[in-house]
Write a structure and sequence with these properties.
Helix content: 25-40%
Order of helices and strands: HEEHHEEHHHHEEHHEEH
Shape: elongated
Number of domains: 2
Largest sheet: 4 strands, mixed
Number of helices: 10
InterPro entries: BTB/POZ_dom (IPR000210), SKP1/BTB/POZ_sf (IPR011333), T1-type_BTB (IPR003131)
Strand order of the largest sheet: 2-1-4-3
Distance between the termini: 66 Å
Protein name: 13177_t:CDS:1
Length: 276
């Protein structure tokens, strides 16, 4: 092919591309969707990206003859749907992003009851629009709400575990905690390290009650999850009635010099790395 034919070829390609764009059902024609009196503006291509939905099928190029739009003063096509205009916000966001932004969808009925906003949308209203516009969806399972006392118990156990491991990381092998029943001034933590005291102190008032009911189970659990762990729980000693004494400790071998050095960058395989 000689060089003088190249410009002619470029013009042929450009003409073909232009014709293809004109025939492309996913062109960027702007549309106005008037849904129950609320107007939304989008592109035809946004809707036809999901051809298995109602709007995705409706606005395919092959169905143009079936459409009967009105035109606003700017010449933009407008289509009216006698549907829920407030709920349609979620429908259009699906077309734009492929996602539903309804993280707390199970709370929508309750939010409507406590909200004075007239634009609040109920869960059932959104589902009705999803069905009408033929948008596939799955309802996420409603998360099980943990019984508040159970949540408090779990937090208490996590606190004890954190206190013990924090002590170990600071080269202590034991933690002693006193949980008084009434006189909160008798609450104490040993060692009196600020980082450990701050972990335990939030439970100074309810620690006694928790241990009084679940002390044995807590000790059994912690012994399983903390290596080389020892648990001791005493109540109502002769000299200190109405208190629980928690003694937690770990085997001192975990802090032996050689074990610590082997895991340190001082003598480990990466001892050439800078300690930071």
């Amino acid at each position: 092919m000689t060089s003088h034919n190249i410009p002619d070829l470029d013009m042929m390609v450009l003409k073909q591309v232009t014709n293809d764009l004109k025939d492309d059902p996913n062109n960027d024609e702007r549309l106005i969707l008037n849904v129950g009196g609320i107007k939304y503006e989008t592109f035809r291509s946004t809707l036809t990206s999901y051809p298995d939905t109602l709007l995705g099928t409706m606005f395919q190029q092959r169905n143009n003859a079936l459409l009967h739009p009105s035109y606003n003063e700017k010449g933009v096509c407008e289509y009216f749907f006698d549907r829920n205009g407030r709920a349609f916000h979620y429908i259009l966001e699906y077309y734009r992003t492929g996602k539903f932004f309804i993280e707390n969808i199970h709370l929508l009925p309750q939010l409507r009851c406590h909200c004075q906003c007239p634009n609040a949308v109920r869960y059932q209203e959104i589902l009705a629009e999803l069905d009408y516009f033929q948008i596939p969806y799955t309802i996420p399972p409603k998360p099980k709400e943990q019984y508040p006392p159970s949540s408090t118990l779990d937090s208490f156990i996590l606190m004890l575990k954190s206190a013990m491991l924090t002590a170990r990381d600071n080269f202590d092998i034991y933690v002693e905690i006193v949980f008084p029943q009434r006189n909160k001034s008798k609450f104490s933590v040993n060692p009196e390290s600020a980082c450990i005291v701050n972990i335990v102190k939030p439970y100074a008032e309810n620690g006694y009650a928790i241990l009084d009911t679940f002390g044995d189970e807590i000790g059994t659990y912690l012994t399983k999850v903390i290596p080389n762990f020892t648990w001791s729980l005493q109540k109502n000693t002769i000299y200190h009635p109405h208190r629980y004494f928690v003694d937690m400790s770990i085997n001192s071998e975990c802090l032996e010099k050689q074990i610590v050095l082997n895991e340190s960058k001082l003598l480990g395989p990466d001892n050439n790395d800078e300690i930071c």
